[in-house]
């Protein structure tokens, strides 16, 4: 990979707690950036938020840091940084990026993690799919995944299983009945979810920390269409019947 731009992957978030999916996201991002032929990933940083983030049920940062370090103790390239967790106020992603970029280049504490390099060190922020700051390369990573959907219907009772190498997620609901949806392993949030019929379409509204979150399912021929919405961002998937 001589001649490629050195790159460090940074993930900011609550990590409440860190999950296999968080760690898998680093691997997917690294593989994608290598496949571009432009970058050489030289490290990864997990940066948990501070205690004043304001998320309901947020565990103290010292415990989240300890769990993250235990989870990553066998990793030779992803490490945990505690700077963001020690800030008195919630820190946005960009200041966190600037701190870690400077540290990765100049701070001796990072010398054992990042080799001395002559080219500029670029820091790439790894975001969860429902973040307000979805980066184009993360969307490209998502396109590499080929999830399967298994849907079981009994009247208005549905079970929807989404299966992929990235994560598996099961959803069990009755149309028209609000329920608490636990998104642990997806983006570590909980929300109050209601799914209703709109003609032949299933429309989901998820009330929680993220505004305008939900999805719509509909069938066209032998294809199942899925439109996902969050914070003004829309993405679409199409599944073919097997």
Automatic annotation (TrEMBL):
SUPFAM superfamilies: Lipocalins (SSF50814), Nucleotidylyl transferase (SSF52374). GO terms for biological process: NAD+ biosynthetic process. Residues 10-92 form the Cytidyltransferase-like domain. Residues 138-228 form the Lipocalin/cytosolic fatty-acid binding domain. One of its GO terms (molecular function) is nicotinamide-nucleotide adenylyltransferase activity. GO terms for cellular component: mitochondrion. Belongs to the calycin superfamily. Fatty-acid binding protein (FABP) family. This is Retinol binding protein 1.
